[in-house]
Design a protein that fits this description.
This protein has about 160 residues and is mostly helical. About 65% of the residues lie in helices and about 10% in strands. A three-stranded antiparallel sheet has the order 1-3-2.
Length: about 160
């Protein structure tokens, strides 16, 4: 027998359905990301870290982990892999002796651009069968939920 959840509102039920679809889609996107080389073989977001460093500038491993809400150890492991690949470098951090800053190297900037191009190609392929206004609406809803969840986690 399956227990059925009783919702007070249709919106609550819709949010649950959205969460189920987001999680299922996340795993498909991660698998596709591995296939096109923007997600590491361990499932970590290689491109995501490059993107954050590109947007935010030099960051420490703990800063990246806090922003992504993942364990520091997983970011450190990925940072070590990226350092070995030559896409980032560690810099002395004037604010903290032990926590080095990570910065994109010129190779890292080139790899970020190459990976971004692959993601753009995937996005264009997925967009071919979608309505632009509906996609923008979905993106706006996801941004709102993102901020709402971030606020809840930071309380």
């Amino acid at each position: 027998m399956v227990n059925q959840i009783i919702y007070r509102t249709q919106a609550g039920q819709a949010i649950e359905e959205l969460i189920v679809e987001i999680v299922a889609t996340f795993f498909l996107l991660r698998a596709q990301g591995m296939r096109i080389g923007v997600v590491s073989s361990s499932g970590e977001g290689y491109w995501s870290v490059l993107r954050l460093l590109n947007i935010k500038g030099s960051q420490t491993v703990p800063q990246l982990a806090r922003y992504r809400y993942v364990p520091r150890q997983s970011v450190q492991k990925l940072a070590n892999e990226m350092l070995n690949d030559g896409v980032i470098e560690f810099l002395n951090n004037p604010a903290h002796k032990r926590s080095k800053l990570l910065r994109l190297t010129p190779k890292g900037e080139a790899v970020f651009q190459e990976m971004s191009d692959r993601i753009a190609t995937l996005a264009e392929t997925l967009a071919e069968q979608q309505d632009t206004d509906q996609l923008q609406n979905a993106a706006n809803i996801m941004k709102q939920l993102h901020e709402q969840l971030r606020t809840m986690l930071n309380q």
